Amino acid sequence: MARGKIQIRKIENPTNRQVTYSKRRNGLFKKAGELAVLCDARVSIVMLSGTNKIHEFHCPEHISTKQLFDHYQQTTGIDLWSSHYEKMQEELRKRKEINKNLHREIRQRMGDSLTELDLDELQTLEQDMEKSLEVIRCRKYKVITNQIETCRKKVRNGEEVHRTLLLEFETREEDPHYGLVDNGGDYDSVIGFTNEGPPRMLALRLQPNHHNLTGAGSSLTTYALL
Predict the structure, then answer these.
(1) pTM (2 decimals)?
(2) DSSP codes joined into one string, 6-63
């Protein structure tokens, strides 16, 4: 069955369009290679896909596309690069002018190069500086506010820890089985000091000695509170 004639128009489906581009590109390169071999011709093809990918083909392989373009210029007498070079030079001049104006504006905002400005320009510069200063102040106040709020949160967290420790301390103090002593020192002390490290709060619990049920002796158990 013969295939129907394909209408030549843009393929709307992106996937189908890319598949068709890939197949026809390969077919075009194949035909160009056959033409170069059969007719001893030099062929160069540069293609830019819809996804901005460049595909290049040249035959014979040892000849680059640039060499073919240079040969084209010599044969036709047309300079392909002069117009492009002129456009690049014009773009460079524009960018230099923009850079010059930006540097002058920076100097003016720093208080330099003001002699060339008239009254209207000076007033405009003053208004711009005031707007910039207002933005800077708003940002500064926001940073200060965030820092204050962070400090307040730290203080609230510290107070909460302090209240928790005091509550635990009062609870253990009310228990008759516990007492706070110095580690190895005066048994009437509240804060104990260990041989190594910072001071620690210790809780002692007196338990009957299991070896002497008459109550003549007792064992001592130490619990660290802090």
Answers:
(1) 0.36
(2) PP-S---SHHHHHHHHHHHHHHHHHHHHHHHHHHT--EEEEEE-TTS-EEEEEESTTS
